[in-house]
Amino acid sequence: MRFKTILAAILFVTAAAAWPAATSKKVLVVMDEREQMEALAAYLKAEGGVESMIVDQASLPADWKPYHAVIGYIHGRLEEAAELKFIEYTRAGGRFVALHHTISSGKARNKHFFDFLGVQLLEPEKAREPSVPGGHYAWRDPVEQVIVNLRPDHYVTSHGVTWPERRRYTSSDAPSAEREYPAMLLKETEVYVNHLFTDGRAKTVLLGFRWTDDRNNQTYMQDRTGWYKREGKGWIFYFQPGHSTQEFGNRVCTRMILNAILWQPELDPR
Fewer CB in 10 Å around end: N or C, the chain? Predict the structure, then answer.
C-alpha cells in the first residue's frame, strides 16, 4: 500500500511538472532576418515559457490556429501570401505583433497591409531624405533616440519592466503640455518618422520617441513608437524598436513584446 501511495505521489508530481509545458503559449515568427528573432525567441522561452516557431515567408504553415500570436519581422518585401495570412489570422481572432521595419517604405507596395494597420507613409520614395515633423515619411540610422513610456499604468509597458530614466516630452497629440515620462535611450538604432494614423483614435498609444535630425536640426516628438488596436476579432500590436540583435537583448524592449503576447483586454486600465 505504501508503494502505491509513493507511486501515486510521483505520478502526480510528474504530471504537475508537465502541465505548464502542455499549456504553454506558442507563437509563429515570420521573418527575413533570423539572428534577431532567435534572440527574441530565446527571451520569450526563458522569461515567459513561450515557444516560438521561426519561419521565412516561403515556409508559412497552412494552419495558424495553434498560435496564440504571430510576430512579423519583415525587412524586405512583404509577399502577398504572408500579407493576406496576417490579415486573415488577426481578423479571425489572432494577435499580430508587428516589429520595427514591418512598417516601412517597402510595404507601401502592398495592396492591403497599411489599411489593415491603419497607417500611411507619405512619399515613401523620399524615405532617405531629411524631412520635417508632419512631412514625408523618412528613416535614419544609426542614431540615438529616446523612447518614452506614455502609459506608465499599462500592463504592456509596466509589468516586469524597469525603465532606466525619465525624460521631458511633449505628446504629438496636440495641444499637449510638456511633462516627464519614464524613458530609455537607444543607441545605434534606426528611427522612423511621420507614421500617419488613418483610423482616428482606434489605436491605444503606448510609446513615443524623441529624436533630433543632425542634418537639419529638426526635432521630432511623435507618439508612434508603440501602440495596439482591435482588428476584427483580434488585435494588432506594433513596436518600433528592434533594429538589431542588440536591441532584442534590451530587457525593456523584449519584456514589452512578451507582455503584448500575454496581455488580455481586462488588463487595460481604461
Answer: N
> Percent of the chain beyond pLDDT 70?
91
Q: Detail the DSSP E strand segments found in the chain.
A: 26-31, 51-55, 69-73, 95-99, 119-120, 138-149, 165-169, 179-193, 196-197, 204-213, 218-231, 234-239
Please name which of 230, 151, 217 lies closest in space to residue 183, comparing C-alpha atoms. 151
Query: With a threshold of 0.85, does the pTM exceed it?
Result: yes
Contact (Cβ atoms closer than 8 angstroms) between residue 71 and residue 51: no
2-267 adopts what CATH topology?
Rossmann fold (3.40.50)
Name the nearest CA neighbour of 160 among 260, 247, 242, 238.
Answer: 260
Ordered by start, the domain boundaries in the chain are: 2-267
Which helix (H) or strand (E) element contains residue 168?
strand 165-169
Given this model, what pLDDT does residue 24 score? 80
C-alpha cell at 85: 495570412
* Separation of alpha carbons 190 and 242, rounded Å: 9
The C-alpha atoms of residue 188 and residue 191 are separated, in whole angstroms, by 10
